[in-house]
Amino acid sequence: MESRVSLPTESVPSEPLTALNPLLGTMQWTVPLFGPRRWWSGPLDVEGLALASVRAAATAATALAGEPLGLEVDAAHVFGAFGSIDFLRVDGRRPAGFAPLSGFFPTGEGWIRLHANYPHHEAALLRALSVTGEDQLRDALHRISARGAEKAIRAGGGIAAAVRPRMTGARAARDEPWTPRTGSTSPCPPTPRPTDEPVWRVYGCWISPG
What we know:
The structure is a single chain. The longest helix has 20 residues, at 46-65. The strands form three sheets. A three-stranded mixed beta sheet has the order 1-2-3. Strand 7 (200-202) and strand 8 (205-207) form a beta hairpin. The protein has helices spanning 15-18, 21-24, 46-65, 75-82, 119-128, 134-142, 146-155, 166-175; strands at residues 5-7, 33-35, 73-74, 103-106, 111-115, 159-162, 200-202, 205-207. The chain has eight helices and eight strands; from the N terminus they run E-H-H-E-H-E-H-E-E-H-H-H-E-H-E-E. The chain is elongated. Helix 3 (46-65) crosses helix 4 (75-82) and helix 5 packs across helix 7 (146-155). By secondary structure, it is an alpha+beta fold.
């Protein structure tokens, strides 16, 4: 069995933690990472993103508590949580992880990623393209571009994303926020501190642990 080793901060993507900067401010506590990293491989650093997101959540919890909580992130445990569906068996068989209309589909120009795991999402998808089932859906997608399908499905309340070249996606992420914000940049409006219940103060916000 491989020995547990400490992982440097730069071994995982920084974006999940950077997104918390307005909350963390000058907080000095860090949540340690442990490996080794060996659970996933591929051009997209899935393992690194999983580790970074769990570390961001643990760091946010520490910020809310206002003191070190002794939290740590272990690659093996993260894999066990994120990859648990791969080991699930029902009556000895591996269950289907996605609905038939969820996944990557070819279009008349490019590919599109569809999400239809929930009934209301599936209904919105079918309604947006005026189809009633998978065969009709595939035919409709072949008559439209990925961008056109994405626009129509999202306008109809569905969830879809055209597959874009790596550099196109990188430019989009760089040039505009994924979740636009308007108005004040303060994480919450100023309020007086409650006096009848325990609270934590996080950047001007009084947050009840309950």
